[in-house]
Amino acid sequence: MTEIRTPRLLLRRWYDDDLAPMAEIHADPQVMRWIGDGSVRDLERTAEDIERWEEEWDEEGFGLFAVELLASGELAGFAGLSVPTFLPEVLPAVEIGWRLGRQFWGQGYASEAAHAALEFALQDRGLDRVVSIARVGNDASENVMRKLGMVPERETKHPVYGHPLRVHTIDLSEFHA
Ligand SMILES: CC(C)(COP(=O)(O)OP(=O)(O)OC[C@H]1O[C@@H](n2cnc3c(N)ncnc32)[C@H](O)[C@@H]1OP(=O)(O)O)[C@@H](O)C(=O)NCCC(=O)NCCS
């Protein structure tokens, strides 16, 4: 099952029509501030990203869901699972992550989507542990982790950019869906 409905959201695989709104999200420096080297991404790069996210779904049986608002049909961004290959020291691992357009912040959408993605990880994929990795300073993201019941496990450095990262984890046997 790769489609999930929450009270306000539809989590689903990616459509061609998602490219333009996702590229708009990627063009916002505030959204991208704590991600990678902090630079914005253009349409071409966003198309490559979506292609990679879809490949991960095909290869792993899990991935980043496109998050759509049920009320309006708008694409809010993504939430879901991926393998954090950028940080080899935590592998093997599955990471939960999220990225929403700025107009969708502060409404509980990220937490609602992430909660459903953790439920998917546990019930559908049978995973027993999930990590989440944030750049130190990304308080909004760590707030989502905390609300999900994730706990800080260790601090490390980004292997390429050198900035401090915090790895959170959750034992899904203790996750109450
Ligand atoms: C990280 C990110 C997804 C968090 O989004 P967010 O909107 O702050 O997160 P939430 O969904 O938990 O919502 C937060 C607030 O919405 C408010 N809210 C409003 N209506 C709500 C509702 N119905 N239910 C729950 N919360 C609601 C709450 O006050 C909540 O804040 P609190 O937890 O302090 O009480 C967002 O900041 C983002 O996309 N950032 C850019 C990308 C990024 O950095 N990604 C992570 C990389 S590690």
Write the layout of secondary structure elements.
Elements: E1 4-5, E2 9-12, H1 19-26, H2 29-32, H3 43-60, E3 64-69, E4 75-82, E5 95-100, H4 109-124, E6 129-135, H5 139-148, E7 151-157, E8 164-171
Antiparallel strand pairs: 1-2, 2-3, 3-4, 4-5, 6-8, 7-8
Helix pairs in contact: 1-3, 4-5
The structure holds coenzyme A (COA).
The site of coenzyme A has 21 residues, from strand 5, helix 4 and helix 5.
Structural shape = globular
- Contiguous low-pLDDT stretches (5 residues minimum) are none
Bound molecules: coenzyme A
Mean pLDDT: 97
Q: What is the ordering of alpha helices and beta strands?
A: EEHHHEEEHEHEE
Describe the oligomeric state of these chains in a short phrase. single chain
* H/I helix tally: 5
Short overview:
This protein has 177 residues and is α+β, with helices and mostly antiparallel strands. The protein has 5 helices and 8 strands, in the order ββαααβββαβαββ.
Question: Can you describe what's shown?
Answer:
This protein has about 180 residues and is an alpha+beta fold. The chain is about 30% helix and about 25% strand. A five-stranded antiparallel beta sheet has the order 1-2-3-4-5, with helices on both faces. A three-stranded antiparallel beta sheet has the order 6-8-7. A hairpin with a 5-residue loop joins strand 3 and strand 4. Helix 1 crosses helix 3 and helix 4 packs across helix 5. The structure holds coenzyme A. Coenzyme A binds next to strand 5, helix 4 and helix 5.
